[in-house]
Amino acid sequence: MPKRARELGPLEVKRLKGPGVFAVGGVAGLSMQITESDSRSWLFRYRINGRRREAGLGPYPDVTLARARDYAREARDMIRSGIDPIEHRRAAQRRLLTFAQAVDRYAAEKTVEFRSEVHRVQWRRSLEKHALPILGDMAVQDVTLQDVLQVLRPLWTEKTETGSKVRQRLERVLDFATVSGHRTGENPARWRGNLDMVLAAPTRLTGGRNFPALQIDDAPRWYAALRARRGMSARALEFQALTASRSGAVRFATWDEIDLGAGLWTIQPGRKQSKIPPSGRPHRVPLTDKMRALLEALPRAQDNPLVFWAPRGGTLSDATLGAVMKKIDAADERAGGAGFRDARTGAPAVPHGVRSTFRSWVAERTGFDGDMAEIALAHKVGTKVQQAYDRSDQVEKRRAMMAAWGRFLAGEALGDVVPIGARAHG
Questions:
Q1: pLDDT of 387 higher than 60
Q2: How far apart are CA 161 and CA 156, in angstroms?
Q3: In 10 A of CB 403, how many CB atoms?
Q4: Is residue 219 a contact partner of residue 286, using CB atoms and an 8 Å limit?
Q5: Count of domains for the chain
Q6: Are 240 and 292 in a shared domain?
Q7: Helix/strand/coil for 42
Q8: In-domain check, residue 62
Q9: What domain range is 83 assigned to?
Q10: 420 inside domain
Q11: Domain containing 298 — which CATH number?
């Protein structure tokens, strides 16, 4: 332990001249450190577990002599209890990391794994919009189940897919904070055995719901009305209809996924809005002549990887494509038509419902194999054992099927559609 120094008063401390380190007494190890530029700060020297250490206690005169001695006495009490003051302070600082800071650190470390800058921006934007206003200033250690529910409940019923994505991102950030030593305990954003006890399963809210679909006989008339509309959102909806893809897969499509020469659109596992888990296989979409013509006619934005982009360069929203559907329905009604309504519910058709129309068309109007249609929809086919052995995605046979679907939508002759019961060639 350092030898006892004479206890200096406030005026004596003020008159100290540097540079140097000067013991001020009152508490063993407390000193004033003065640099050549006369910058002054408090220094506390101590030994613990045979190790000499120095802790800064703050600048002078912001930290007064009396307060510095209080800090030093508190540190001495910790040392007597076997606690290293420096490590204790570092642990406290780790615990006080805010959720917003945790998002920043996670993004810096992990979003480099995303395939494009667009995906990184979308990942951050969803948390900035829905989570940071509530959790941003909170210490990440203090985030609880009720805080997570405060973020998710406004989204869960009306915007279930968005809510599910935000929940997954909250879970990742909080897991990262735990592994990094900034929080302890259970992850309040975990689904199984936690949030699943208080929130409805997303599949119960959306997965089991039949989206309002076009009636098969209405599809060519609807497609003609869509083709007559201009704009990037109309072209995105047209491409979605021709490929029978999910809205998100189209809206987040990038040019590096498209091979016009080979006639393939390849969506990699884990790609945003693809619904393909990172552990899955790439989903290949055969591009027909109609699809390629649509893509080749699209304007390209400089330094923008997106195939379909919003006026300001970002991704189109799902609501934008839905708005095109609503406008087509409303225009048909104004012209004296019946609109484009689901046969069962009478509700206006939505973009996702076009996938159901495609599936019904395959089953009711063609002889194409049903499993091929399921593969086209990016659904899993067969048991896990069958999936393990059947690695073929039948891309060329599906090309013939999608070409026939495109001709059906366009109201063209369908002489090459395979009759029901016959074998499909492609």
A1: no
A2: 8
A3: 20
A4: no
A5: 3
A6: yes
A7: strand
A8: yes
A9: 10-93
A10: no
A11: 1.10.443.10
**Residue 326 tokens, joined:** 């609503």
- The verdict on 162 and 133 lying in the same domain is yes
Give which of 96, 186, 94, 103 is closest to 144, Cα–Cα: 186
Distances 42 to 7, 13, 55, 76, 142 between C-alpha atoms, Å: 15, 11, 9, 15, 31
Q: Phi/psi of residue 249, each to 5°?
A: -60, -40
Alpha-carbon gap, residue 426 to 424, rounded angstroms: 7
Q: How far separated are the first and last CA of the chain, in Å rounded?
A: 87
Q: Which of 186, 207, 228 is the last residue of a domain?
A: 207
Question: pLDDT by residue (tens digit) across 302-350?
Answer: 889 999 999 988 999 989 999 999 999 999 999 988 899 988 778 899 9
Give the pTM. 0.52
Asked if 242 and 190 sit in the same domain, the reply is no
Residue-averaged pLDDT of the chain: 85
Could you tell me if 134 and 281 lie in one domain?
no
Tokens 């379909």 -> residue:
308
The structure tokens 């189109």 sit at 316
Report the CATH number at residue 35. Answer: 3.30.160.390
- How far are the Cα atoms of 117, 169, 267 from residue 124, in angstroms, in the given order? 11, 9, 22
How large is the greatest C-alpha to C-alpha distance in the chain, in angstroms?
105
3-state secondary structure of 190: coil
Q: 35 in a domain, yes or no? A: yes
> Pick from 121, 158, 112: which is nearest to 315 by CA?
121
